[in-house]
Amino acid sequence: MNIMSGQCVFGQKKHLFFLPLSEKKKKNGPKSLRDLRAERQAQAERSVLVSCHPKTHENKFLKYLSRHGNVNKCFFYESFGTYAVVEFSNQDGVQSLLESAAMPSVSHESVVPLRSRLLSLRNVNTVDTDKQSAPSANHRELCPSTTHSLTDENTRLRFLVCSLLNDIAAAYFPQSSIKPFGSSVNGFGKLGCDLDMILDLDGTICVRPQPRSGMYMEYLVKRTSSERAVTQSVLSVIAGCLDQFGPGCVGVQKILNARCPLVRFAHQPSGFQCDLTASNRVAMRSTELLYLFGELDARVRPLVFTVRCWARAHGVTSPIPGAWITNFSLTIMVLFFLQRRNPPILPTLDRLKELAEPSEKCVLDGNDCTFTSDFHRISLETNTETLDQLLGDFFEFYSTFIFNRMSINLGRYGKEHKPELHPLYIQNPFETSLNISKNVNSSQLERFVTLCQESAWLLQSGSHLNTLLLPSHISVVRGRKKRKSQPASERIKGLLESLRIKNNVSFGFTVFFKNHCNKSL
Description:
Layout: E1 8-10, E2 15-17, H1 21-28, H2 33-45, E3 47-52, H3 58-65, E4 71-78, E5 82-88, H4 91-100, E6 118-120, E7 139-140, H5 152-169, E8 177-181, E9 195-200, H6 227-245, E10 249-255, E11 262-267, E12 272-277, H7 281-296, H8 300-313, H9 327-339, H10 349-354, E13 363-364, E14 367-368, H11 387-399, H12 442-460, H13 488-502, H14 509-520
Parallel strand pairs: 3-6, 4-7, 9-12
Antiparallel strand pairs: 1-2, 3-5, 4-5, 8-9, 10-11, 11-12, 13-14
Helix pairs in contact: 2-5, 8-9, 8-14, 11-12
């Protein structure tokens, strides 16, 4: 399977294969994130999550489900047990299945039953379960240790978890909705990434009164000191409900004093670590922007994943919070680099704002978040550079970038002087006063630049792309201590000589990405 190939998904009776991304775009054009989200949410609303016996046979299980309605999609996965995601063709199938489900009998009077689309198939004889294990192909690990980019099944499960949680939140806020954002939907996520969600309360707000009706809805909000206090109160209520009654929700933490208040918990049936916010609408727009950039050119996402793979192999990024460059910062750096190609591969944010229609104007919390999401209005110059060329030029670009004076800003084509003295300044695309790389210290930035210099040298010398994943002989190590070493040119010459002995064949970018990025992400 090459870089741009689609993922295999399991259907009702046979394997279904999605078209490669490039073929999809040729036939239908890129799909907007709004349309994609609406499609995924509709799928989730007519789906259920079922805890199954490990030896449940797929065909007999589907035959049982078909009594309640036509099944569009069904697949199994492992996460603290065996689970099945079942999508019906309409919500009538879901309702029929729920009506046939029985509440477990419990003797404890304090137990409060909660009607949920998370079901447990306990009486396996009901579906004539085989005593043999189901074929291994019918079971997919959705949340293993970080390896591949998100599959269709994993994305479906993420939207289903949001939908299940929304069923709980709707008891308090009937017109609200819980939506995923960030890496779960922007196209740059990988298996194992957290599930970031926002409780969108916009649907609960009355837009325009109708005085002629003679009737007003009672709309009372107890007085609070600020909008932030309201957000904290709303999240506190939802956190308490998830902790006490949320099926599968464990380890619920209220982190309400953070810059962006949130509720953190684990959803055991899916294996996802979840963060739920209620006021991070700017992050939703950032998600849409990154999705747009990823759809504009087929080289964007493979290059981002490859650079991330390289960064992880050399310890430039880390899953542990600290002074390292984050994956989000690294993604912005790749996008910034692609904006600076000649001709540019990606437009600037300012250009996207110029192309926006009046109806697309968007101001959130005082931040101008306007840009067009209409692909038909965005015209790009032809750039024929290969991924191999772009990877080498990325390293060259940042090995000579003037970090002490210049900032990284997706807004403008021109050079932008950084407004503060932090070693690395990457401007938040919409909250322009924020530096998203404020945590990075001088030693980590120096380490990144040195790695870029060595990697650029290796590629220019025609070395095997595998060498990019070898430990780098650099002078700056983690912490403040430095070890004495020979000049960089001598170190690199020695490294090249040893590598040429071991590797006499140069492989292509596709082989490198397939064989190594999936192992290191």
